[in-house]
Amino acid sequence: PTMAHSKALLVLENFIGGKFVPCSSYIDSYNPSTGDVYCRVPDSGKEEVEAAVKAAKDAFPIWSSKSPLERSQILNKLADLIEHDLEAFAQAESKDQGKTITFARTVDIPRAVHNFRFFASSILHHVTECTEMPAMGCVHYTSRAPVGVAGLISPWNLPLYLLTWKIAPAIACGNTVVAKPSEMTSVTAWMMCKLLEKAGVPPGVVNVVFGTGARAGEALVCHPDVPLISFTGSTQTAQRITERSAPHCKRLSLELGGKNPAIVFDDADLSQCIPTTVRSSFANQGEICLCTSRIFVQRGIYSEFLKRFVAEAKKWKTGNPSDPTIDVGALISKEHLEKVRTYVKKAQAEGARVLCGEGVDPLALPPGNQKGYFMLPTVIAEVKDESCCMQEEIFGPVTCVVAFDTEEEVIRRANSVKYGLAATVWSSNVGRVHRVAHRLQSGLVWTNCWLVRDLNLPFGGMKASGIGREGAKDSYEFFTEVKTITIKH
Ligand code: NAD
């Protein structure tokens, strides 16, 4: 290709009322593995959000009156179309986000497909409640109806995966939506819009406005005709959304950050625990809300664990995300990489030991990736519980390993952070795993495994990790309004 051709930028457009519409201004989007600007994303504001909400409102009467079966068939068709283009979606997600092509191929895009199939099926199986009061001659029953225009706001770490986790239940239940993906990872949402018409999604049912949180996101949160907001992102942004939506008393679902503990008892099967905990720490560059970042190991096995854990972490290869043999890709942005590095420096300044990774081992990158935002998996030991590395969400390939003595002590220490999203417990004592799981302040507890999900069951966090749950029944409840009807005969 000529220089001009190779430098041609991908330019995205908003998708409103079934049509792609250009925007008056754009934001640069970077390829995190090269540091180059490769795409321009609409910088939407109030005007674009207004048009999208209007299109969604106009589409609501027709879409909400379709039967669940009709909607289910459309969702299944959309799933098939995304699956047909799986490789193109995976390539785009890897390029846009910095994640490895392997992760995008095996996790992100298959899960996006599954989200549509799952809710296409799930919506067919709900039953409402009915009670009788014979003495009063009454029966009561509940009915559920879609709420209206749903505002959906998603983060950059699992772009299409998390956006479809919201779009699928919202439209399956008969709502219409205005979605705003992260301005840093907008490409796969735009690609999905190209398939909607073919899938049979009527114009206006799914609208996507691209842009920043401050402009497009807030315009959506503050719009009076958007009665519910499903948000996944940071706790700080959730606070802002709560404030801004308060005058409208909006229904909010907030899926936020974590500081997830792994607790390893001395009777754990380390041959399972170590590779899984390396994965739970470093998968997707540690940029998953469910990633482990505090590992508590019982004192008797602490040094053996540390030795084997570091050896396993060093096996993870960092480099060009499009190389299928690579385990760790690039972090999302230059700013984020700097932030993650700062945490490692702070830990060192406090006297903690960095056992591998950042600042300890050499990072060799291919010539084309020298300006990318890479960092090696980093393991830190001897960190104090009150250190910012043990309290704050780092959201990068950094994990801390510390020793503990008793069950009572480790429960207290695991709970001593503001977050409560996901915990893992490793032990072969069944009584202990139940006891500990019940006492952890965490929306999800995995024992002897990590990230095994059944979408039927609730997903979400406690404390600063969120409000509300999502899943088959929970999403159905969130995206519908319930009514109790009483009939006297
Ligand atoms: P973020 O909060 O910065 O942004 C998330 C989204 O909100 C983006 O689309 C952004 O543009 C938008 N936004 C920002 N400010 C806004 C505002 N004032 N009004 C409306 N929208 C606004 O989060 P991020 O950095 O993109 O994502 C990382 C965070 O997401 C981490 O904290 C991570 O733990 C969390 N996360 C949570 C889950 C979960 O399910 N609990 C899943 C993935 C990520």
From TrEMBL:
Q: Name one GO biological process term.
A: retinoic acid metabolic process
Top-rank EC class of the record's enzyme: oxidoreductase
Query: What is the protein's known function?
Result: Catalyzes the NAD-dependent oxidation of 2-aminomuconic semialdehyde of the kynurenine metabolic pathway in L-tryptophan degradation.
Give the source's domain of life in one word: Eukaryota
Q: Which reaction does it catalyse?
A: 2-aminomuconate 6-semialdehyde + NAD(+) + H2O = (2Z,4E)-2-aminomuconate + NADH + 2 H(+)
| InterPro entries in alphabetical order | Ald_DH/histidinol_DH, Ald_DH_C, Ald_DH_CS_CYS, Ald_DH_CS_GLU, Ald_DH_N, Aldehyde_DH_dom
Q: In which pathway does it act?
A: Amino-acid degradation; L-kynurenine degradation
Q: Upper taxonomic classification of the species?
A: Eukaryota, Metazoa, Chordata, Craniata, Vertebrata
Q: Where in the cell is it found?
A: Cytoplasm
Gene Ontology cellular-component terms listed: cytoplasm
Query: Does the keyword field hold Transcription?
Result: no
Mind telling me which Gene3D superfamilies this protein's record contains? Answer: Aldehyde Dehydrogenase, Chain A, domain 1, Aldehyde Dehydrogenase, Chain A, domain 2
Q: Name one GO molecular function term.
A: aminomuconate-semialdehyde dehydrogenase activity
Coiled coil, from the record:
none
Give every Aldehyde dehydrogenase domain span. 25-485
By sequence similarity, the record places it as follows: Belongs to the aldehyde dehydrogenase family.
EC number per UniProt: 1.2.1.32
* Official protein name in the record: 2-aminomuconic semialdehyde dehydrogenase
Keywords, A to Z, come to: Cytoplasm, NAD, Oxidoreductase
- Enzyme active site: 255
